[in-house]
UniProtKB/TrEMBL annotation:
PANTHER family: 25S RRNA (ADENINE(2142)-N(1))-METHYLTRANSFERASE (PTHR21008:SF1), S-ADENOSYLMETHIONINE SENSOR UPSTREAM OF MTORC1-RELATED (PTHR21008). This is 25S rRNA adenine-N(1) methyltransferase. One of its GO terms (molecular function) is rRNA (adenine) methyltransferase activity. S-adenosyl-L-methionine-dependent methyltransferase that specifically methylates the N(1) position of an adenine present in helix 65 in 25S rRNA. GO terms for cellular component: nucleolus. It comes from the Eukaryota. Residues 1-12 have a biased composition (Basic residues). Keywords: Methyltransferase, Nucleus, S-adenosyl-L-methionine, Transferase. The gene is BMT2. It comes from Cladophialophora chaetospira. Belongs to the BMT2 family. Its EC number is 2.1.1.-. The lineage of its organism: Eukaryota, Fungi, Dikarya, Ascomycota, Pezizomycotina. Residues 1-39 are annotated as: Disordered.
Amino acid sequence: MAKKKRPSKHSKPSSLKSGRPPLSRPSTSNTKLPSLSSKHTRTLINTHHLLQKRLATARLTGDVAKVAEIEAQLAAQGGLESYQLASRTGQRNDRGGDSSKVLVKWLEGEVQARKAALRGSRSIGEREDVDNSKQVTLVEGMKPKPIRILEVGALSTQNALNIAGITTVRRIDLRSPEQGIEEIDFMDLPIPAAPNGEADSGYDVLSLSLVLNYVPDPEARGEMLKRTTQFFNTPTSTRLQREQSSSDEEDQTRVLPCLFLVLPSPCLHNSRYLDAERLTSILNSLGYSHLHSKTTRKLYYSLWRYDDQHARDQWVMSGGQTVFKKTELKPGGGRNNFCIVLETE
Ligand SMILES: C[S@@+](CC[C@H](N)C(=O)[O-])C[C@H]1O[C@@H](n2cnc3c(N)ncnc32)[C@H](O)[C@@H]1O
């Protein structure tokens, strides 16, 4: 059988949607959650991931019959829609809750600072009561900038990230389960423009919660991580912030801009090819520094500050690795094959 040409490793990251099964039905519906047992939920999610992986391999080897067979299996299982429903069931409070609460906890300092600034601006506004037009100008002028969040792989518009007056959240997914979630592949999402080096055209926080493990192959996972770095407020604004920051200590406590990364715990703690040290090196090589992490029985949560090209240059200058191939770190049975591969430009 004729083999399909493998895409070049250095080509522009391709849309992940092209490697996905068709969406099972129109995307604007607001489906009521059926009650699924946790065993059923787990089986559905695991089978979906397994079929996705097999589908990616069949596509790569150009096995057309196999592709059709796996797509039919995915469709019979309910496709991405059923997978999303199962994932939402898994987010219920009685099943461990939704990861956005952990992110908000780690952003607490930023949230409280803005709340205090808001209170301050309101009291100044009240003092200027005599002149209404001035009051508005003053209040608006003093208003803190909201924390701009991009949530990739969003299942609901209702989560802890919505904090009135403090955050603005843009949500995207391959399949939009409800209004307010844009249906777009992150790999196709236009990179924010920064006209004239203007700050604030990007995001302060990018959330990738249980998304990277959805991507079926290791190179595409690396591409996804690499792409995250282009969505933050411009490197110029980050650098300016750093220069304005009064001390190194202050710089150490800075949280924004940052990446929130959540993976199933076994992807990090029981993989042949990935562990916490390796993940840290991969993210350091992209210009991230580790701020927080926590592991529960099911999930690994982490927060990484993006320190831009400057940090990446320093990493390279100090001899840091920038290419991460599929290298066995922990041999032996009983482990999984989750892996992230990173190639240089
Ligand atoms: C397990 S759900 C995770 C949902 C939620 N973030 C959570 O933490 O529970 C994974 C979602 O990521 C979405 N997804 C995967 N790859 C994506 C991509 N490249 N762009 C946008 N969404 C993506 C899938 O469609 C799916 O709805």
